Amino acid sequence: MQRMQASPDDAAARLRFHSELINSEIFVLLEEEARGDNLRPRVFDLADAHAVLAFDSEARMVGFAGQRVAYAALPGRVLVTMLVEARAGLSLIVNADAPHAELLPPELLDWLAQTLAAPPPVADEAMPEGFSAPELPASSLALLVPALERRLSGVPGLQAAVLAEVSWQGGARGPVLALAGVPEPARPALARAVAEALELSGLADSGLDVVFPGPAAMARIAEVGRPLAPAPFAPSTGVTDGMSGTTPGMDPSRPPRLK
Fold first, then answer.
1. How do residues 186-222 score in pLDDT, each as one tens digit?
2. Domains, the chain, ranges and CATH?
3. In this structure, are residues 179 and 210 in contact, taking their beta carbons and an 8 Å threshold?
């Protein structure tokens, strides 16, 4: 967020911030303890907005509150969707106590929610004829590689990720992301996550395909492609600070609701 505000005209930095926001755990101040799946966030009336406060760490939230308060810890993507679905015209302030606090107005939250709700990419049965090193411009790779590494970090089962160029039967060519070790049931969701990362990095037009090759094919792709280095999966250990908190939104079939 500090890098983004240091360069207010840097669209790539702003998109990276949006990507990190929706993929991080966010701590939100509540008016009262959550009751089941119902949340009542504390809404602050500003001069030109009604805003909910969120923090990127428990320590920062505790420092701001200065006393025992009710709060919820939930994924940023869940919070964004929840605020938009409330249809209350709410803004979101991230790290209100910091010099680099950021206000996200309702129209920006709407755009983020639309991006998150986009349908998954269509599965295709096209056959590849060969792979080579990625041919994207250096400027595109400088955005694409870190965006993919952030989005693929912590994915359970992921063993390797390689960016390459593919030649399809019929003559078509383009960039491709090869992923190894991902269980079959998780593949559509992961392909959608990659498409989301492209959208939030300003690279939606890059036409990146996602494939899940077997070990032999993956080895050949790795010989010519560019390996990525996402952070490995690490089971959550939980956090406790003595305040009154809850972690809703982890079950996709039961998203929290604003009261």
1. 888 888 888 887 877 776 666 788 999 999 999 999 9
2. 2-117+236-258 (3.40.1350.90), 128-227 (3.30.70)
3. yes
